[in-house]
Each structure stands twice: as structure tokens, then as C-alpha cells.
Amino acid sequence: MISNSKEETETKTFRVKSSVLDQLKREAEEEGISLNSLVHKAFMQYIWCNTKTAKGMMVPVSKARLRVIMEKMTEEEIIEVSQANSKTDPKALQFILHGEYSEDALIESLEIWSIASRFTFSKKRTQDNKIQLLVHHNMGYKCSLFFCKTIAEAIHNATGNRPQYNISDNFFALTVVDS
Q1: The organism sits in which domain of life (predicted)?
Q2: What is the DSSP code string of the chain?
Q3: Any domain includes 4
């Protein structure tokens, strides 16, 4: 049986203009999620995209442009780039954002990145001490290959363990042993 992991939460009160709250309610309804989930996504996206540390380490590029770049590369080139990428930028970004370079920090960053990219992300914990991660993106096989291999290499560099993965045109999935 698979269960969703629960993280500790805290309750805070914020004042929000009624017009903004109405827009958020409509957006949450359109996405089929609770208002609380939408607000959480907004906070996570802000952290990922708008903090001083993230601004200096990330360059926005459109999904269409990234897809064209990936399609021009061979699978071997994509794997080579993903392996090189996982040994440089992610370590620095993870340490700055989380104060550590660990599997948990990488998984949290994958979730934040997915939210900021407007990809569907799910994380499930199984009874056999594994975490299953799924990112649905609709950007093609080569983008799946790049995203998945980059994250898998970063997790391997952080933990010494290689996650299992599955790649398709529309999504990639990783399974890691919870430490």
C-alpha cells in the first residue's frame, strides 16, 4: 500500500485583498485543488524563482526552446550534459537553499522546480521504505531523459545510491530508498 508522506505544517494568518483571494479561489477550482494547496504552491514557487540565491543560479528558458535544444542533441550528449550538470550547479544551489546537499533537499527541490515549471508532481512513500517520485511534463522523451538523468545523478552524488527510474515522452519517475 502506498501512502502520501506528511510533513509538519504551521498555521499563519495573512491579510489578502478580496479581489486577489477571489482570483486564487478561481485558479484553485480550475486546477482541481484546494485553496490551501494553491497557496502552498505559490509560496514554493516564490522560494524557487524569486529568492536572491535562486535568481543568480537559474536562467529562464521557454519549454518550447528547451525542447528544440534537447531534440537537436543525441541521447548520449544529453546523458553527458546531465552527468556534468549534477556535479556542479545543483550542489551549490542545494546547499544555498537548504543548507545541505542531501536526498531530502534534492527531492524538495524537484517538487519546487516542478511547481515552478507547472509540471504535475507527486511523491508517495511505500511500506517497503521507498519514495516514488513522478513528474508529468509533456515535453518529449529527450527532455524526460535530461531531467531524469540529471536528478538521478544528483541523488547518486548526494547518497551513493542510484535511484531506479522510468522515462517516457510525457513523464519520468524515480524510486529511491528512504534513508
Answers
A1: Archaea
A2: -EE--------------HHHHHHHHHHHHHHTS-HHHHHHHHHHHHHHHHSHHHHHH-----HHHHHHHHHHS-HHHHHHHHHHHHTSHHHHHHHHHHSS-SHHHHHHHHHHHHHHTT-EEEEEEETTSEEEEEEE--S-HHHHHHHHHHHHHHHHHHHS-PPEEEE-SSEEEEEEE--
A3: no
Domain range holding 44? 16-50
What is the chain's pLDDT, residue by residue, as a tens digit (179 residues)? 333 445 678 899 999 999 999 999 998 888 778 999 888 878 877 776 676 555 556 667 888 999 999 999 999 999 988 877 655 555 555 554 555 666 777 777 788 778 778 899 998 888 888 889 999 999 999 999 999 998 888 888 777 888 999 999 999 999 988 76
Number of domains in the chain: 2
pTM metric for this prediction: 0.68
Q: Are residues 35 and 70 in the same domain?
A: no
Residues 81 and 107 in one domain: yes
